[in-house]
């Protein structure tokens, strides 16, 4: 797919209220080519368990880890890779040259997706603040569009090793086969 290793940091999780959104951030990250997800310690264990179950059933090398201090984690990440913060206030990914800039990244890339109130420091720590449009929208949608554009759609054709189930594409009905 690419020479970049993508990981996602979900910040701003509000316990109970954001359970489903954070789970979907993890599922999208996995399905769209990221290698792992970092979560704040306030995230419910059930979110992590759900993502782990999906990985066990559908395969892949995706990992989920909890970080104690997301801002410290971001500063430390900058020592080994690039930080891209997805925000509606950033450079619009559709503007000329922005996508080329992101695609030129090699090595490790941390994509930060936040909830409603992202600390100001995240904007300052990030190497790039990138917008998927400049209107309010879902962090799940932003992550999906960002990863799809980064990988030029190739992530949609990836095979997941050690999958127990596999979908057989079909125009009608659901075809799922047990493979492991």
TrEMBL record:
EC number: 2.1.1.206
Keyword terms: Cytoplasm, Methyltransferase, S-adenosyl-L-methionine, Transferase, tRNA processing
Gene3D superfamilies assigned: 3.40.1280.10
Coiled coil: none
Entry's localization field: Cytoplasm
GO biological process, one term: tRNA nucleoside ribose methylation
GO MF, any single term: tRNA (cytidine(56)-2'-O)-methyltransferase activity
Keyword Iron-sulfur: no
Domain of life: Archaea
Catalytic activity as recorded in UniProt: cytidine(56) in tRNA + S-adenosyl-L-methionine = 2'-O-methylcytidine(56) in tRNA + S-adenosyl-L-homocysteine + H(+)
Enzyme class at the top of the EC tree: transferase
Binding residue positions for S-adenosyl-L-methionine: 86, 114-118, 132-139
Function noted in UniProt: Specifically catalyzes the AdoMet-dependent 2'-O-ribose methylation of cytidine at position 56 in tRNAs.
UniProt record similarity statement: Belongs to the aTrm56 family.
Protein name: tRNA (cytidine(56)-2'-O)-methyltransferase
């Amino acid at each position: 797919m690419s020479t970049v290793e993508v990981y996602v940091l979900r910040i701003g999780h509000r316990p109970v209220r954001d359970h489903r959104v954070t789970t979907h951030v993890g599922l999208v990250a996995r399905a769209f080519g990221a290698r792992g997800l970092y979560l704040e310690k306030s995230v419910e264990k059930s979110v992590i368990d759900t993502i782990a179950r999906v990985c066990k059933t559908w395969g892949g090398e995706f990992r989920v880890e909890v970080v104690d201090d997301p801002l410290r984690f971001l500063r430390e990440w900058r020592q080994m890779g690039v930080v891209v913060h997805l925000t509606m206030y950033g450079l619009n990914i559709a503007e000329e040259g922005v996508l080329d800039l992101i695609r030129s990244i090699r090595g490790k890339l941390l994509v930060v997706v936040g909830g409603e109130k992202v600390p100001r420091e995240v904007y300052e720590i990030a190497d790039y603040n990138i917008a998927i449009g400049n209107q309010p929208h879902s962090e799940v949608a932003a992550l999906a569009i960002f990863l799809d554009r980064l990988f030029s759609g190739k992530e949609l054709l990836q095979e997941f090793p050690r999958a127990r189930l596999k979908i057989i594409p079909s125009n009608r009905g659901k075809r799922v086969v047990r493979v492991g």
